[in-house]
Amino acid sequence: DDDDTTDDDDSADDDDSAAVDGDGDGSASDVDCDDGNAAVHPGATEVCGSGTDEDCVPETNCDDTCLATFDYSLCAALPTPIPAHLHWDYENATSTTIADAGSSATTGYLSGAPTFGPGLRGDAVTLDGASHVAASGALSIPTNAFTMVTWVRSAATDNTGAYHFLMSSGSGVPSYTGAGLYLSAGTGTGGLLENGSQAGERTPAGTAVCDGLWSQVALTFDVGAAGIWVNGLLTPVNANWSDVAWGARPFWVGNDPNNTARAVTGEIDETMVFTTALDAQDLADLRTTALCGR
């Protein structure tokens, strides 16, 4: 009741120090980390890349990603995990191998000198353009439906050639077989789809990743309907055929076993392969799970 009238007695009922909501965002100053900015308050959606802690929780921050925003309130009820055929999360690597958290139990064998350290979620693998991670063989996945998805962070000054493979499986033996996902011309993205013939080869291009920030990149295929996804943005393509022809060469991350001059330089995290074609919501759920698990 501090109103500068005669009943202002500086006693316990004087509210000069009471919390106020100076910016009118619904959060009082005792919980609002910036009571002069209505866009900043507990429960606010994080604006990625802003350098500001919009939700007043320092641990929830997406500034190192290429996403526009992320609503960390989604973390209160995480989506049901989608079973992955292969999931290399790059945690607990040994000097020679990484384990598979997916159903196929496909061990990854380290080639060159990949290193491991803090990534998008837990640890990531850093590849120097002369290293990769390889399975012992091609993955056993359907010919008519699958998804390849991973997170990548690289500089625009790296990967300036036409093809730098994030992952590749079943390529080249016999010719014009397999599928893969790659970076191109610094920040470009693309996919490789083969049906056993030169005329049927498809190399759809996607939108760009961000320079030096984490991006989710995916290739989906569903009975000829293919797409390159970058942070949820789809570039669709019709392969005009319904089945990929899988060859014998093994699954690799960071290069193409069919042409080892196509190595990636950068960080890779949360590499997954699914035996179905994921949709927009599925890929959004993977982003939620990754960011909430940091």
Describe the global form. Answer: elongated
| Rg computed from alpha carbons, rounded to a whole number of angstroms | 24 Å
The helix content is under 10%
Residue fraction in strands: 25-35%
Amino- and carboxy-terminal Cα gap: 46 Å
Please work out how many helical segments DSSP would assign: 1
> Kindly state the mean pLDDT as a whole number?
92
Q: Biggest sheet, in brief?
A: 8 strands, antiparallel
The tally of beta strands, per DSSP, is: 18
Order of helices and strands: EEEEEEEEEEEEEEEEEEH
- Unreliable segments (pLDDT under 50, ≥5 consecutive)? none
Structural class estimated from helices and strands: mainly beta
What is the topology?
Elements: E1 46-47, E2 69-70, E3 86-88, E4 97-98, E5 108-111, E6 115-118, E7 123-128, E8 132-134, E9 145-153, E10 164-169, E11 179-184, E12 188-193, E13 205-206, E14 215-222, E15 225-230, E16 233-238, E17 252-253, E18 265-274, H1 280-292
Antiparallel strand pairs: 1-2, 3-18, 4-5, 5-8, 6-7, 7-18, 8-17, 9-14, 9-18, 10-11, 10-17, 11-12, 12-13, 14-15, 15-16
